[in-house]
Each structure stands twice: as structure tokens, then as C-alpha cells.
Design brief:
The model has no long low-confidence stretch (mean pLDDT 88). This protein has a two-stranded antiparallel sheet with strand order 1-2. With 73 residues, the chain is mostly helical. It contains 2 helices and 2 strands. The longest helix has 22 residues. It has a domain of 51 residues.
Length: 73
Amino acid sequence: METVDSNNGNNADVMRMQYRTLTADEQAQMVAVKGNAASLYGFLGTLGNSRELSLAKTKLEEAVMWATKHITG
């Protein structure tokens, strides 16, 4: 399995020092997750401003992070 070093000579990234190369299917999954999330994020932006919408956007960003971690793990 091919990996890519992400350390860049420092220890700032101590959680995952190397990333593996994604398959074509995994790349497509990443595009789908991020594209769908971007659409929803944009829609939420049309609803106005409130603490609740700010939380919804933050949780959406978190959901994308966890989905990405699943795909790339």
C-alpha cells in the first residue's frame, strides 16, 4: 500500500503521520460526501442567521470530518 508522509519534518501531526493513497471508489465517495455537504451548507446559508444555524453548519462540518475519517481510515 502506497503512503504519503504528512509530517513535513515536525511533530505537529502526531495523530496520523502517513496517509494511504485512496482508491478511485474512495475518491468518488469523498467527492460525494463533500459535494452533498456543500449543497446543504449553501442552502443553510439562505435561511438567515441564528445560533441554531451556526450550530447546524458546525455539525455539518463535523459530519464531513467523520465521514472523511471513515473513508480514509
